[in-house]
Design brief:
The complex is a heterodimer of chains A (about 45) and B (about 220). Chain A has about 45 residues and is α+β, with helices and mostly antiparallel strands. Chain A has one helix and three strands. Chain A has a domain of about 25 residues. Chain A has a two-stranded antiparallel ribbon. Chain B has a single domain, classed as Glutaredoxin (3-Layer(aba) Sandwich), CATH 3.40.30.10.
């Protein structure tokens, strides 16, 4: 994924891929809004 | 700091994490002791999206992923809550799902006239918070005029496709780099951050490339 770059940070941070965006469902349930960095579930 | 840290960002207008990531990145820039230069690059998440899709965002998601509409609506509600934590007022009820290729061309026009960052913010807010239809050149030209661009010049470029090659070049570079999802940030062409990460991660990347640039130039830190 990183091509010629050195990657920094979490490897599973939320991204949008092919029209669908990973939604950190667990983080939403477990932490205040905005805290999510995990990737689980989907959203466009 | 001898020179600003250059950050290249691949993102899409129709990308909820890109707006959240933008806010988190901005927090990092505010904490960073140095200058930052941002350049946005085009990435179409759903290039097959029809212009003037008539359904709701939840219906698009349900159709695109084969999910029950109720589950899609639940996901959108969760995303809305998460965005609110970043001070963003997402309104998926009024959102008009868009094919973003014209919006990307408008952003390239804005880049050529020194207003890309301003237009990026305006388009994201228009899409996620205000329910504006970004499928159409007229709407994009109106928004471009709001950030100080010449409305007629924007319209002329959008109608002629003058910036479409630049959009395609960004997309080809993303493929070359192996970028499969957005937002994706590249710092001084060396470090990269994938996703809407925490401000701490962005600060770390900014400070590291700034420190390494000082070391390489031989200037005192």
């Amino acid at each position: 994924m990183s091509g010629p770059f050195e990657m920094v940070g979490e490897v599973d941070a939320p991204v949008c891929v092919d029209g669908v965006c990973a939604l950190p469902t667990d983080a939403v349930e477990a932490a205040p809004a905005g805290a999510g960095t995990a990737s689980d579930g989907q959203h466009t | 700091m001898s020179h600003p840290v250059k950050v290249d960002v691949w993102s899409d207008i129709a990308c909820p994490w890109c707006f959240v990531g933008k806010r988190r990145f901005e927090q990092a820039v505010a904490r960073f002791d140095g200058e930052v230069e941002v350049e946005y690059h085009s990435f179409e998440l759903s290039p097959e999206t029809p212009v003037d899709y008539a359904g709701t965002e939840a219906q698009f998601l349900a159709q695109h992923k084969g999910l029950p509409t109720q589950q899609a609506e639940q996901m959108l509600a969760q995303m809305t809550e998460l965005a609110a934590g970043e001070g963003l007022a997402y309104d998926f009820g009024s959102l008009q799902h868009a094919n973003t290729v014209l919006a990307h061309q408008a952003l390239h026009h804005a880049k050529a006239h020194g207003k890309q960052v301003e237009l990026k913010e305006r388009l994201l807010a228009a899409y996620f918070e205000q329910g504006l239809n970004l499928n159409h050149a007229e709407v994009l030209a109106d928004l471009a005029a709001e950030v100080g661009l010449d409305r007629d010049a924007v319209l002329t470029d959008l109608e002629s496709g003058a910036h479409l090659p630049a959009v395609r070049a960004d997309q080809e570079q993303a493929i070359e780099y192996g970028i499969g999802g957005v937002p994706f940030y590249v710092f001084d062409g060396r470090l990269a951050v994938s996703g809407a990460q925490s401000p701490d991660v962005f600060v770390t990347a900014l400070e590291r490339v700034a420190r390494e640039a000082v070391t390489e130039s031989g200037q005192p830190a």
